[in-house]
User: Fold Deaminase from Jiangella ureilytica.
Amino acid sequence: MGNLTYEMITSLDGYVADADGNFDWSAPDEELHSFVNETAKGIGTFLYGRRMYETMVYWETAHTVPDQPEFVLEWARTWQAADKVVYSTTLESVSSGRTRLERTFDPDAVRELKATAGHDLTVDGPGLAASALRAGLVDEVGQYITPVVVGGGTRFLPDDVRLDLELVQQRRFANGVVYVHYRVRQGGPTR
Assistant:
């Protein structure tokens, strides 16, 4: 059985993108990127909404960009080796290997995927993650808190879900980012 994790880089005030949709303030440096690479080694499946997939599909060809540092190439290899499931009603096709397109997010199908997976999974993007959180599918939540306040935008967590969490890991990086990783306590979300 695989665990389903939701984690993203956020602003201190809890946004993954600012009010204009920008997230350039969240670009990881080598230390942070290397840590993310290490934590991603057990991930075998990424669950994406359309917007997050369109951002992440860059990694399908990142290795072809000249002079990429090794930590970037390492992430590209990890991403390419994993399965991807994209949930979208508007995307016509996918452009990466090991990727399938689903028209609707079916919590029961994700439960079955978790139950039969021999690896961990992630749900990526706040919209899709909100659906997974509401369905009680998320086992762990991680947040890379960046030392910036953006004042509004796309929230990391939805307003209508309550989770009781247990801190399992924390780390501070030289660039001021603080990583916190929580396990969702049994019983799932409450509204």
